[in-house]
Design a protein that fits this description.
Order of helices and strands: EHEEHE
Structural class: alpha+beta
Number of domains: 1
Distance between the termini: 14 Å
Number of strands: 4
Strand content: 15-25%
Radius of gyration: 20 Å
Shape: elongated
Length: about 100
């Protein structure tokens, strides 16, 4: 292993804000692209975007698909971020967490 570019440190605490930020960035980009793709399919008549139990077609489906993708990423960030924070907190009670930082 190349140890001159890698510093391993013991972390006593990782801020929950960092976990939520990483998840939000990591989930929002692919979910927005997926929402755009579903909106594009809905523009051509496919039933891929629905709001309030009604399918949306045409040009309106593009922004609605993006909105649904962003809302889903926010919901998934809230759920997965909370579960990750809980899991890391429980893990840290039994063993120290080691993180490798690459420069």
């Amino acid at each position: 292993m190349d140890t001159e570019n890698r510093a391993v440190t013991d972390m006593k605490r990782i801020k929950a804000r960092s976990i939520y930020r990483l998840l939000l960035i990591g989930l929002s980009i692919p979910m927005a692209v997926l929402g755009f793709i579903f909106g594009l399919f809905a523009c051509f008549g496919y039933d891929t975007v629905s709001w309030n139990q009604q399918y949306i077609h045409g040009v309106l489906a593009l922004p609605v698909g993006l909105l649904i993708g962003i809302l889903m990423s926010a919901i998934m960030t809230a759920i997965l971020g909370s579960l990750s924070c809980l899991g890391l907190w429980i893990y840290s009670r039994f063993r120290p967490l080691r993180i490798a930082v690459l420069d």
